[in-house]
Amino acid sequence: MMKPVVQVYTDYISPYAFVANKPLFALEESHGVKLDWRPYSLRIADYLGSVEERSPHYWRKVRYCYMDARRYANKQGLVLKGPRKIYNSYLSSVGMLFAQRHGFFRPYHDLVFEKFWKHELDVENIDEMAALIAGVGGDAEAYKAYAQGPAREEHDRIIDEAEAQGVFGVPTMMLDGELFWGGDRIDLLIERLEERSKAGPAPTSDAAAE
Description:
Layout: E1 5-10, H1 15-30, E2 34-39, H2 44-48, H3 56-75, H4 90-102, H5 105-117, H6 126-135, H7 140-147, H8 151-164, E3 172-175, E4 178-181, H9 186-199, H10 205-209
Parallel strand pairs: 1-2
Antiparallel strand pairs: 1-3, 3-4
């Protein structure tokens, strides 16, 4: 029987995506799912405007969100330091695609999250990203050529397709077309997986016609 596929949209610069990472991978063991990881690069300035335009209410919310995410990180033994600025995550997102294509996704994925949130990686610096890729067995120059060339079209297409399906933030999980946004919705995703398992596979067209 084929494993259920859960599409996961994530972004390395999101604290909530970071703290949802381990619980999502745990689903592969606990519920026998296949995770289909996809980048969804947050375009923070596009929907929040410039830093100067943001209200005191916004900054109170930001401080709370990082404090809240840090609580989840601490429970997992993770280090989560507040970011020094608003980052553009394009290079890390296309690094995910490159790592998937060349067979070192998981070490790349975990290391980018870990190093970014420890302030040990600038995801906007292509040389730092290339060095990280080389460190997990990838071809640094091939990555640079990809990131500075065909990756842009592929990256933008994935995000356009995600938004056409209703994705607006990370982490977002999708099962059978149903969206679950946020790590605190993983329990609801588990409920759907268990309901799906009890229901069994959908009937084939021939069986349905009988």
